[in-house]
Amino acid sequence: MERYTLKNLAAMLLSKDISSQEILEMYMQRISDYDKSLNCYITLNKDDAFEKSIQADRLIESGNTLSLTGIPYAGKDIFCTQGIKTTCGSKMLENFIPPYDATVISNLSNQGAILMGKTNMDEFAMGSSNETSYFGPAHNPWDLARSPGGSSGGSAVAVAAGLAPISLGTDTGGSIRQPAAFTGITGLKPSYGRCSRYGMVAFASSLDQAGILALTAEDAAILLESLAGFDPLDSTSVETDVPKYSQSLDASIEGKTVGIPKEFFDEGLDSESEKVFFNAIKIYESLGVQFQDISLPHLSLSVPTYYVVAPAECSSNLARYDGIRYGYRHDETDDLDNFYLTNRQIGFGAEVKRRIITGTYVLSTGYYDAYYLKAQKVRQLISEDFKQAFKSVDAIMGPTTQTPAFKIGEKIDDPVTMYMNDIYTISANLAGLPAISHPCGFVQSLPFGLQIIAPHFAEGELLNLTHLFQQKTDWHQKQPPDLKKV
Amino acid sequence: MSIKKTDIAYISSLSKLKIEDIEIDNFTRQISDILEMIQQLEKVDTDGIEPMAHPLNMKQRLRMDEVTEENQRDLYQENAVEVEQGFYKVPKVID
């Protein structure tokens, strides 16, 4: 198997070593050979993609290219795509065909990128293993019995297994970084407000953010330049310039200071994972980065805080699914109340229901102050911890997860154990900070990820650090074992 | 903190979710576990702390109240299972 970076493909297109149509044929062939065992795509956009690749080849021929002309990518099935089914991993939206594109999707097509298909995900992005998908779990290409993580599991698998050069995901509590770590690729969650949420099916609106799963930080930098930007259609999108991330990748990081929070090593991290992480820190030291021990005193509260805030927002956002204007509609009910109850009973899976119930509970009379308001205050404390830390350091590093990929079925019946999976990633969402996960070694022969968190809108810092690390190491080039054709 | 089966049934009805009898035991146990985990927040001293609703503490941006889109009812109704003369159909609510 050969995996191509976006940068490779762009160069090959420009030198006319390959055509956009040939690139697409190559990926479609790999999808047809391997996706039966990986299950990373829910819907393919084959005909439209081929048509666009032919147009792209004409543009390349005439020398009129844009930054992503002819480059195929995969999009998580949470982004609305005009005329292409957008299921959000749910029976509720199994037949939903959006009448418009999400802004991030139009941003990429405006630069000539070609959407190949929509990837598998936990239902409504609620899950950390891809197992809550109505369409069955995606499988980790490093070991098919293992989870690729979630919720952007399909997007991670597509890139790791060479079924797409790059993909889009979303990250509400770790949904880009944890699957990137589990599959040995690079995953970037930008700052809250950096990329438009318009047309991205809402789960927890104060936490959701679109981002990138890629083979290298360089690819993520190139794509982010097109993906990010102010959008008048998203009232939380921020009006600030988008830097040329790809031009600051090689800037020296000598003398940068990075904090390592002691709370990341309190419990749950096994010794082998810890060793792999600190070996990676040595590489950064050799690049001139200076490390300090820091403390994020409220870090252990990020999971309980998140599991109040996220379900509360979810219960409100998912109230719109009534089966009337769109979504699953059960035909055999004659009473309006029963009609709602039945549509939502059949349309939603167990995890989504659990979160709606939890969210409704924490928002209900008598509990609002004790749970929701309390959680919003603790959220402020968590955010303050980061502000304090960034007074003395440029970035924060730690492991992305406590363990490498776990087995499918191992945690699905125990929500709290599953939720604890995101203990290292959730705090960045609560504080709205940008964060990246990049491969930093192997634990039990499975990829392991290192996470970097930076101040608001310092995505360039994350990409710069990761890029220089990737110039010194080859963890990001390690490929999953050859898969069998099915 | 444990939550009772009857609480789950009541909250589900508020959320317009029908929960089958076979699901309710599991949900009661699992949601009790979740609430127990959340209980950790009680111990935190948050006196004088402003609740945080938005990660960047931004103000809501407003725009002029002008029509910016044309009506595309037919297009939007393509996703509905039942429509009639431009209306969405639901089960009868008035006899």
The CATH class name of the domain at 6-255 in chain A reads Alpha Beta
The averaged pLDDT of chain B comes out at: 91
- Give a count of the beta strands of chain A, DSSP E runs of length 2 or more: 11
Helix content of chain B: 25-40%
Named CATH topology of the domain at 6-255 in chain A:
Amidase signature (AS) enzymes
Briefly, what is this?
The complex is a heterodimer of chains A (about 475) and B (about 100). Chain A is an alpha/beta fold.
Structure overview:
The complex is a heterodimer of chains A (486) and B (95). Among the domains of chain A are: 6-255, Amidase signature (AS) domain (Amidase signature (AS) enzymes), CATH 3.90.1300; 301-378, no CATH class. Chain A has an 11-stranded mixed beta sheet with strand order 1-3-2-4-6-5-10-11-9-7-8, sandwiched between helices. With 486 residues, chain A is of the alpha/beta class. Chain A has helices at 6-14, 20-38, 46-62, 103-110, 153-160, 177-183, 217-227, 271-286, 302-317, 336-347, 350-363, 368-389, 415-420, 426-431, 459-472; strands at 41-44, 72-76, 114-119, 166-170, 186-189, 210-214, 257-261, 290-294, 395-399, 435-443, 446-453. Chain A contains 15 helices and 11 strands. In chain A, 38% of the residues lie in helices and 13% in strands. Chain A is globular and about 65 Å long. Chain B has 95 residues and is mostly helical. Chain B has 3 helices and 2 strands, in the order H-H-H-E-E. The interface between A and B is large, with 75 and 55 residues.
What features would you highlight for this structure?
heterodimer; A: 486 residues; alpha/beta; Amidase signature (AS) enzymes; eleven-stranded mixed beta sheet; B: 95 residues; mainly alpha; 3 helices; 35% helix; 4% strand; flat
Secondary structure elements and pairings:
The complex is a heterodimer of chains A (486) and B (95).
Chain A: H1 6-14, H2 20-38, E1 41-44, H3 46-62, E2 72-76, H4 103-110, E3 114-119, H5 153-160, E4 166-170, H6 177-183, E5 186-189, E6 210-214, H7 217-227, E7 257-261, H8 271-286, E8 290-294, H9 302-317, H10 336-347, H11 350-363, H12 368-389, E9 395-399, H13 415-420, H14 426-431, E10 435-443, E11 446-453, H15 459-472
Parallel strand pairs in A: 2-3, 2-4, 7-8, 7-9
Antiparallel strand pairs in A: 1-3, 4-6, 5-6, 5-10, 9-11, 10-11
Chain B: H1 5-14, H2 21-38, H3 73-77, E1 83-84, E2 87-88
Antiparallel strand pairs in B: 1-2
